[in-house]
Amino acid sequence: MVKHRLFKKNIISIGVICLYLLPIVSVSANSNFQKYGYVFKSTRSVKYSRHLSTPLITKVMHPHTKDLYFKNRETTHRGVKYIGLQRQVVGWTFTKGHARRKTFRTFYVRRSAVKKVKTVLAQTSIKKTPVNLKSSQYNFWTYPRGTRQSVKEQYRGSTYRFRTLYATEKMHTRLHGTFIKVQTASGKKLGWIYQGAVLSGRYLDPVAYLTRNTQLTKRVWVNKKKPRIKVASLSQDNQLKTLIVQGEDNSATVITIDPVRDTYYVLESNRTRTKVKKTSIKCYSPLKVDR
Q1: Minimal CA–CA distance to 288: which of 244, 238, 241, 242?
Q2: DSSP state, 202?
């Protein structure tokens, strides 16, 4: 009987401990998944730093009202509610050369000095759509910057540039515009990337892109050691009309053969074209293309 009572008492004690621990674990698990943040209502507020054994210490600050902060905790001091805020922690894995994450201390302000705002204005699933990167300037993130308290780069954009990827979700953020969630053809989830960094449609190299609808006769020469380097010719009735020289950086120089003066332009890697210019000399005589 005594053993039974002791066992029952131990079970109750364990249950009480679990109840105390449950809210702490819940807050910790969800702290990085807040879809809202806080902004200051005015450009002049009072900042408070709090230590466990010392009272609140005031410090005047001039925050920008557009700056976004994330809630860490809340407290009450002498009947006034205060909210603990932190700046976003950004993990620049690649952009800044594996820079160490800069952590920010929690500071407190009166709850009435800030207002709660959504960090994500809209998020929708979209039909699996083929896209490709037009620039290696942007990388893939765990979440778009400005939407979570802690985000980091997880894949280089340059690694997945010259291939077809697929967009599955779209998110419009408060601070940094629209992002899309991307995965590879095999289903590997790369994360979120700025929408302005992608082009719609499957990836085509410059030669394939420039000649996709041509009615002329096309011939392509590929560098065996560097297969991204290509030279393509477009001809009609064995007469050379256009010459395309593709570089390793996904750009191409397009030369149009003219009886008087040849012209050229450059197709940049992001699919923009430079102005058409005349060559300084006649580059090619109107020779026929050998069969």
Answers
A1: 238
A2: -
- Looking up tokens 């900042």, which residue turns up? 47
54 in Cβ contact with 170 (< 8 Å): no
> Is a pLDDT exceeding 60 seen at residue 285?
no
Domain 120-200: assigned CATH number: 2.30.30.170
pLDDT at 280: 74
Q: Indicate the domain borders of the chain.
A: 36-117, 120-200, 206-278
Residue 85 Ramachandran class (φ > 0 left, ψ -120 to 50 alpha, else beta): beta
- 7-16, 37-46, 100-109, 220-229 — most confident range: 220-229
Q: Which residue has the tokens 């060559």?
A: 279
Cα distances (angstroms) measured from residue 242 to each of 4, 204, 253: 93, 19, 10
Query: What distances in angstroms separate CA 223 from CA 95, 137, 205, 226, 247, one per listed residue?
Result: 32, 27, 14, 5, 10
Confidence of residue 189 (pLDDT cuts 50, 70, 90): very high
Strands 277-278 and 263-267: antiparallel
Reported residue count of the chain is 291
Cα distance between residue 206 and residue 228, in whole Å:
10
The whole-angstrom separation of Cα 144 and Cα 192 is 6
For 173-202, b where at least 16 C-beta lie within 10 A, e where not — what string? bbeeeebbbbbeeeeeebbbbbbebbeeee
69 vs 172: CA distance, rounded Å = 18
The C-alpha atoms of residue 246 and residue 92 are separated, in whole angstroms, by 33
